[in-house]
Amino acid sequence: MSDKGVYSMAYKLYHKDADYSYVLGPFPSFECLKWRSDLVRDIFYADNFNEQAKLLGMAKELGLKAELAPKLLEKLARGQKEPYVGVIYDKASFYRALSPESPHLVLHEIRNSGNLGTILRACLAFGIHDIALIGETVSIFLPEIARASMGAIFALNIAYFPDLASYISAYGKDSRQLYTFCLSKRALSLQAALTKPLKNQHFSLIFGNEGQGLPSVCEQAPFQPIMIEQSKDVDSLNLAIACSLAMYEFQRKVLSD
Hints:
Layout: E1 20-24, H1 26-35, E2 40-45, H2 52-62, E3 66-68, H3 70-77, E4 85-90, E5 104-108, H4 113-125, E6 130-134, H5 143-148, E7 157-161, H6 164-171, E8 177-181, E9 188-189, H7 190-193, E10 203-207, E11 223-227, H8 239-256
Parallel strand pairs: 2-3, 5-6, 5-10, 6-7, 8-10, 8-11, 9-11
Antiparallel strand pairs: 1-4, 2-4
Helix pairs in contact: 4-8
């Protein structure tokens, strides 16, 4: 069946300067509708999508319209597996304030979209809902990030800061504990750090990018450097794995204290 809607023809492949982005695939699309219906501009589906009833019911409940547009979905998928369904959403109101009472994951200039999507999925899994993106981080609006996160980006509070100093000024004062994951003479092992008391849930886990890590200022007070011990057989851990280990261990301590 051909696309008939006027709106479906206006959408193009992702571009950083466009005022919208999109998410493709059933599960991420439903997550977008579930958590951030306020962002949704349009919903499109293919005639062979086997969850049409669920989609149309959800759209109706939210006061949104779903349009049959298989050709648009095929174009946006760029030759990849047929997505069956997609959601166009506005970028303008995506970012949200972080909770000052909750733990934060802070990501400094992350460059790999697959890593970022995987990290955000792990955030939701381990109960850390407040994420700060710092500096020249890969665009959160890339469709592959929403897909890699399985829609987790829509369930999280994500904020952007031009530099680490801006984040510290907004959230790093008072009793918040700032843990930087980097090599340093001051670094504690992860296990040693976990023997020290946490001040409620006022802590931030701060990670640098895949190549250069964190700037040297992160080795000094008020930051507490931490390193994840590993065997000498590997140079380093994948960033998504390191973030996941840290979040799991810190959240486990929160529950046990």
